[in-house]
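Memo to structure team: turn this sequence into structure tokens by end of day. - J.P.
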Amino acid sequence: MELQPKRIGERIRFLRVRRNLTQKELAGEQMTRNMLSLIENGSALPSLNSLVYLAEILDVPVDYFFSATDEDEGRYLKLSAIHSLRQAYAAERYEDCITQIQALPVSAADDEISLIGANAYLYTALQSAAAYELKTAQQHLKTSQDFLQKTVYAGEDLKKALVFYRELFTLLPSSLEFPERLTDLRFASSYIPAEMLVYLSGLRGITRGMMTGKEFPKESYASKHIQALQAVSANRTDTAVRLLRELAQDGELPYYMRFRVYSDLEEAAGLTREYRVAYMAARKKLDLLENAKK
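Reply from structure team:
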């Protein structure tokens, strides 16, 4: 097999840059920086000892430098990256997972890495949604879908979650009620909490007099919101305003409840002529709509 200095040099440079090492740092005591520069440019071949040294520092097998195809190169790079990637995923460091995957060539994205990518982008989509940055959330969902199509390991729960959240994030910025298909408990999984589905169903049911609030854990956000809506229906508007204000002032209020809670508070406070409260609720709605564009 004929050695290709340029290909070897490109692979050394790729890994050095990926690991944020300068030429001087990588060269160490093994060689001069100038020699490493010549090697990376394909103007010189490293000795076997130097290759072994570089492979150890760059955390790849020596054979990686001699891989003949992009597929071989990807396989070696995957071997060097997968342990760190698995650790980041297990620790729920999804942004770190994405950074590591982005640093790999396309040829390294096998079934396992693609599955991790699909999950990592879904979870970062949920993190963006929690900040009501719905445009960013949708972009992450799209990338998650792209990775999903590259792996045979994806289960039905992940596929359903992408369908569910794409529609939810599209409706969230201004919807006060959600279609029945988004309240189907068959969507419930590790990706979609059952409490969310029951809550979305409750919003539909309360307008039809079918929801009592007993379906929710006591003192939960959903239970308090349903109680507030029931209070409005029973003309106990003061009670409704109190409950809705408590929800609106809670920084942990789930993202999928915020717009509806602010809307209900604006309306209820208007009925009790608490115009300052109604105005603040209206402002919060506008802030959400602005955030949704991010």
